[in-house]
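look at this fold:
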Amino acid sequence: MFAEERNTEGAVVPLERAVRIDPENAEANHMLALVYGQLGFFNRAEAPLRRAVELFAVQSLTNESLRSSLADARNSLGVVLMNLDRYDEALPILRLATEEITYGSQHLALGNLGRALIHRQRYPEAIDALQRSVRRQPTFCVGNARLGEAFARSNDAAHAVEALDRAIATAVTGCDQFQDAFLWRAKARIQLHQPDAARDDLQRCVALGASTPEGQECASLGRSVAP
């Protein structure tokens, strides 16, 4: 109901009450943590997520249908830890989520694992995780964008452009609005000595938001490749 009404803040009190009444309710703990995360309260989200993981882990021993829910809770916990800049803690939790074959959103866990590995500068491992992610879900444009970033950071500009082309061309709403994709494709095109194409990407990046960190970096880079 609250999600349908887009009243995220309104969901906090009833979910907190539900967890107080039934602390063993894994789903309520997970939902409460997701609401905290949507509100940017990542420190508050960690405890109920860890509780949800603990509960789902126990319950899935006798109810295998909950293995997917366990993987989903682990993926959520990994995302929260990344938002708290605790990437090393997130890595093993995300790996466990990627290993659950019943998890319908396995590509998301692989994408998050790739993101964590990029932050730890473990680019070959990140590329492997992200390639697995987009093989499972070819329309996962964020996965392709991160794959392109990982290739670019590895100085493999040609493969970076291929992945970023796929990301931007994906026929899913929002895929052509991802600033990072234009930024990293521009950087790769500069490496490939394609200044005109790079300038086009940088202009599109700035047009999506000149005041964001990505937009500011695109504007600065654009001045360096001006004709």
Remarks:
- The two ends are 54 Å apart (CA to CA).
- DSSP finds twelve helices and no strands in the chain.
- The first helix runs from residue 8 to 21.
